[in-house]
Amino acid sequence: MYAFDIERPATVADAVAALANEDAQALGGGQTLIPTLKARLASPEKLISLTGIAEMQGISSQDGTLRIGGGTNHATVASETGAIYPALAELASHIGDPAVRNRGTIGGSIANNDPAACYPAAALASGATITTNNRDIAADDYFQGMFTTALDEGEIVTAVTFPIPEKAHYEKFVQPASRFALVGVYVAKFADGVRVAVTGASNEGVHRWTEAEDALSANFSADALADLTVSADDLISDLHGSAEYRAHLVKVMTGRAVSKAK
Amino acid sequence: MTKVTMTINGKEVSGDVEGRTLLSSFLREDLRMTGTHIGCDTSQCGACTVHVNGKAVKSCTMFAAEAEGAQVSTIEGQANADGSLNVIQQAFQDHHGLQCGFCTPGMVMTTAALLKINPKPSEQEVREHLEGNICRCTGYHNIVKAILAASGQDVSTIAAE
Ligand SMILES: Cc1cc2nc3c(=O)[nH]c(=O)nc-3n(C[C@H](O)[C@H](O)[C@H](O)COP(=O)(O)OP(=O)(O)OC[C@H]3O[C@@H](n4cnc5c(N)ncnc54)[C@H](O)[C@@H]3O)c2cc1C
Ligand code: FES
Ligand code: FES
Q1: Which of A2, A21, A200, B62 is deepest in the core (most CB within 10 A)?
Q2: pTM of the model
């Protein structure tokens, strides 16, 4: 790692002020950023740690929505949201391993938008709202391709608010070396229709599978997918799986997610 | 350099660290507490697992400066007050839960964290909880057995596969 200083502000306002320095970068749980720094793929002069900011911690629910502070770690989401949004709790409980879950945060995951990450699929399928230090962004506008989001330089994800579906499930085909999704599909059924988000599969990052949404909105059953095909065009091909294999997995994982949704 | 102060295994410790100093480096290189092992340094293997405020974390993937004011427990603090092995350590010895022993500090710390939240885990729960702890030697079977034994469960019926 190149040398840098760490600041630990106590409020969002102080963190935003510190991040105004263009050589400063936010530090969430560090479970992605620290390996990146070790590989010298980033060289900030200052890291602004967000983990000491009380207003970015914690979980609350009202009017059919669940709000999770951007600094909340995966273990806390796994243990505290089970009664209100079980599919999300289950997703959080299968991110990485227990030690990763004790440090990694939802804000860091959503900000990083790794093309194989789990939370982006949940946020997109649930139609979540991403709250930053200065605005609210709909998930449909927020995710803009692999490692790319609507966030401006120095903007902080302070909370993510999920509308709670009638039924939902995240089905993840684990890439066993990294523990990320080789392909993961999040299906969420609302009163006014079904949303399906796919992670791990595309060079465009997390995305919705609209044909499946239409079919499942008409008939919420794995059988409804029978006539659909997933094109391998623009899907990721790497040593873990070809684009064709991933295309196949998208449909299989979607079917399983529908069958298991509750 | 910044001064950090934390409580490690019940003792208050201070030191000067750079921003980039990992908690693992602070423990091993500054404090010479080399019981915490570095197996990969890439957040994969769990040999470096310690507890920070009661939660298992990979000390190679956390900065020392972030542990300011924290309660840290390491393998050096696990033995009983009289120096004898604690229940988990003794179970690893009794059930041959280690061969070279390199992964063992992390395995013991991960086990201690598991048994705190789930005092009687099933075999499946133990295996899932070890997701982030890699062992090159044992094939895990005797580690799982040791953990079940440490939780006071009968392991005589678990076949050596
Ligand atoms: C072994 C291992 C297994 C993993 N498995 C999975 C998995 O199965 N599924 C999965 O989804 N992820 C997985 N991860 C990634 C993990 O979930 C990370 O915690 C997460 O991607 C990043 O969150 P963080 O809080 O650690 O962020 P950091 O690593 O601290 O930061 C990541 C990026 O986001 C920025 N950032 C951080 N917080 C904020 C914020 N609040 N606002 C704006 N920007 C911010 C940082 O500047 C940095 O660019 C794994 C990681 C490891 C090490
Ligand atoms: S040394 Fe920390 S996870 Fe391997
Ligand atoms: S005993 Fe050798 S790595 Fe586990």
Answers
A1: A200
A2: 0.96
